Amino acid sequence: MLIKKNVKRLLLYRLCLVKFREMGFKRVYSYNLGHEAGVSAEQIRKDFSHFKITGNKKGGYDIESVLEKLNYIFRKNELQKVIIVGMGNIGRALSHYECGFTVRRQYIVAGFDIDPVKIKKTYNVPVYDMRSMDEYIRTNNIQVAIMAVPSISAQEVCTILVDAGIKGIMNFSPVLLQVPENVIVNNINLCDELEIVIYTAVNSNSINEAMIDNLTRD
Q: What CA dihedral angle connects 52, 5, 3 and 153, to 10 degrees?
């Protein structure tokens, strides 16, 4: 299974390649792509080699061919069905982000909650009782779920998802979930992400000074 950093780099390469294509380029060299993506040309060649994406020294990489292979890797030719568990503020917001997901052929097909009021409300996706979630996952061959439930019930919900056949979870709950090795969890903590940005912005001068000081000592 690929580690998250590898996957994020591939997604970044694809974004940059789409930009180059829109600018009218047909081919790109690893150092051009590296400059745009903020990584070394060596890293790009290493990542591409891992997936048997080839180019040549004189002509570089054919953009259309690489994009086609990346789309295959991420199964962009298939419909990716996803469910949301927990239709609170985050769940509702994600269910309304239909156009952003649809562009990438990612479809949130259903939501689940224990609150009868939320089940009766009208959302962009149908919302069902949590008790029907196991059957829904199995019947519709769902492999990916978004969890946005309170921390007190997060592990219990996670266990139900995994037992039903879920292989990937995007977790907005502030809990480190315990899952089998064959299940991937991507923990999303918006407060932590914002705190990183705040820390970096406030301390940017100190960080730069420390880096310069270390280089001077070396």
A: -150
